[in-house]
Write a structure and sequence with these properties.
6% helix, 1 helix
């Protein structure tokens, strides 16, 4: 579950998954042991920055609809389009319930900054009547500093057991160097992290260390 939120906004009103001891796990990618030439954390935050790019005076359109069905199921659709001098943002969200205690939420967003930077995000969350839940999501960002792709997910079983995993790749536009990082968590194995850095030719190299 990427970004600064432990779980995406669409998870609100649904029981959140139990978080492991490490608060950073799946909230942001774990990239190299320290600072890489390209700041992956900055890139991950890129989508959030672009989402706030359009100022208050920007043009915005919102569509919202709710469907109530005879079988007790519901579906809520929300779409937002916003543009202004600093960029544009598109967001869509669908939340559905089946009247039996099961629910799901899917969301997509795309943003473009005035300088040409772009970011996209997709997420899907489900909750079952037995208390189990799952989430998966992807983030992609590209700007003057480089690019980033991150994907991962988390599951919670009915007994409360949580597993999480995330994979992230970040590439520097200036050097072509990249880093591939993985993180995972489970009750049995605990937290696991790894990162491998590559030069522009794809040859493995030592990851830069934090100053």
């Amino acid at each position: 579950m990427p970004h600064s939120e432990a779980y995406p906004k669409e998870f609100i009103a649904m029981p959140s998954l139990t978080r492991p001891a490490d608060p950073d796990l799946l909230q942001r990618p774990v990239l190299a042991a320290g600072v890489f030439v390209f700041s992956a954390l900055t890139a991950l935050g890129f989508s959030a920055v672009l989402a706030l790019a359009a100022p208050a005076e920007a043009q915005a359109r919102t569509r919202h609809s709710v469907e109530h069905n005879a079988d007790g199921s519901t579906a809520t659709h929300t779409g937002v389009a916003r543009s202004g001098p600093n960029g544009a943002v598109l967001r869509s969200r669908t939340a559905a319930t089946d009247g039996q205690g099961n629910a799901s939420v899917t969301s997509r967003s795309a943003a473009m900054g005035a300088q040409g930077g772009m970011a996209t995000r997709q997420g899907s969350t489900t909750r079952s009547a037995d208390g189990s839940a799952s989430h998966s999501g992807t983030v992609s960002a590209q700007g003057a500093q480089g690019s980033l792709q991150s994907s991962g997910g988390a599951t919670r079983n009915a007994d409360g057991t949580v597993t999480q995993a995330r994979s992230t790749t970040a590439t520097s536009a200036a050097t072509g160097n990249s880093v591939q990082a993985q993180s995972s968590y489970s009750k049995d194995t605990g937290l696991s992290r790894s990162a491998t850095c590559y030069d522009a030719s794809g040859t493995a190299m030592a990851c830069p260390v934090r100053p």
